[in-house]
Amino acid sequence: MMYEEVIRDFAQRTQKNLQAIEYLLKERKEGREVPEVFETTQLVNSTLGLLVFPQQQFVNDIPETPINELKKMGWPVPKACSAFPQVKNLNQLIRNLRNAIAHFNIEFIGDGQNQVSFIKVWNCRDNRKTWEAKLSVSDLQSITERFIELLLNK
Question: Cα separation of 73 and 40, whole Å?
Answer without folding.
Answer: 24
